[in-house]
Amino acid sequence: QKEVEQNSGPLSVPEGAIASLNCTYSDRGSQSFFWYRQYSGKSPELIMSIYSNGDKEDGRFTAQLNKASQYVSLLIRDSQPSDSATYLCAVTLNFGNEKLTFGTGTRLTIIP
Amino acid sequence: NAGVTQTPKFQVLKTGQSMTLQCAQDMNHNSMYWYRQDPGMGLRLIYYSASEGTTDKGEVPNGYNVSRLNKREFSLRLESAAPSQTSVYFCASRLSRGQGGYTFGSGTRLTVV
Question: How far apart are CA B75 and CA B68, in angstroms?
Answer without folding.
Answer: 7
